[in-house]
Design brief:
- The complex is a heterodimer.
- By secondary structure, chain A is an all-alpha fold.
- Chain B has one domain.
- In chain B, 68% of the residues lie in helices and 0% in strands.
- Chain B is built from seven helices and no strands.
- The longest helix of chain B is centred in the last third of the chain and has 38 residues.
- Classes of the chains: A mainly alpha, B mainly alpha.
Chain lengths: 163, 244
Amino acid sequence: MPQFDPTTFASQLFWLAVTFVLLFIVVSRFAIPRLGEVLEQRQKLIADDLDRAHQLKAETEDAIRSYEKALAEARAKAHDVLRVAQDEMAKAADERNKAVNAALAEQIKQGEARIGKARDEALASVRDIAGGAAVAAVSRLAGLSPDEATVQAAVSGVMKESA
Amino acid sequence: MASPVEQFAVKPIIPVAHEGGALPFYTFTNSSAAMVAAVLVATVFFWLATRKRAVVPGRWQAVGEVLFDFIANMIRDNVGKEGMKYFPFVFTLFVFVFIGNMLGMLPYSFTFTSHIAVTAAMAVLIFVGVTIIGFARHGFHYLHMFFPHGAPLATAPILIPIELISYLSRPFSLSVRLFANMTVGHIMLKVLAGFVVSLGVVGGIVPFAVVSGITVLEFFIGALQAYVFTILTCIYLNDAINMH
């Protein structure tokens, strides 16, 4: 077998040493640094991306928190405004009611006074008419002409009875 | 017909004068050519793999990264963090043996890993290196490799020779394993391929099918032996660095 031919050993060993050292230089100076660099870069990129994602997530949560706070504040403010407006409106309505009630009461009083006056006047004229009618009836039936004072007294007496 | 071992003949490519004896050490032979080709292939591969250095790797880069991680993990798993110091050497070893085995599968090429001189040189380099690392790290204590802690003193006369022999036989098993695997595989391919030729078109179909299958198997064995050679190196390194 050619494997056991020692005449070729020196050449094989020499070239093995040369090529192995050469390959070692290629691997250690070229291949490993460059491959290692690429793997490291990827690792770093992934780690950086993860960090950024975490940071963004935290920022998002902050934003959500502040948004919710603002929302709650706005809601409270709106509630306050609503209550103030309601109070004001209730007060205004109350005042207007009072004023209107007062005016109405005044008008009612005035109306009642007018009604009273009109009734008194009516009653007075009723008396005159009743007196006239009594005089006319007496003169027609009895042929008498009663004096004014007697008739008035009689009418007043009847009216008092009927009232 | 050519002898099945003729494919292993080391022949000078550039003729040199030698009076029948040993070839001068600088003789550039088919073996040397295969070694240089392996270095060139590896260099071109690494160039392709690291040309772009993209975050999302292309095909070559993906293969390069897989190879890198494969060897790095092999050392991390078998030796630990401290073994990463020897990463370049182990990486070189694997690439050299693997490409050597693969180039050997090309027709008319030469398989330099099928030569005991080459595998033995690498195995001895590993053996000597590992032994030096062991003594450098543990000093005289490294001799405990041959007599583990906790073993009864009475067993020493048996245990020490056994451990010593198993330790000293490492370079032999390491070199013979690779050399024998590659040699036998290639001889088998040659012999079976010879049957295809001698049995003709009709009768040759069966050996042809077998040869096709064996060729696939040989690729697998080439890769596997490169892996075995490398992982054994890692295991020896682990013994030297961590001691068992």
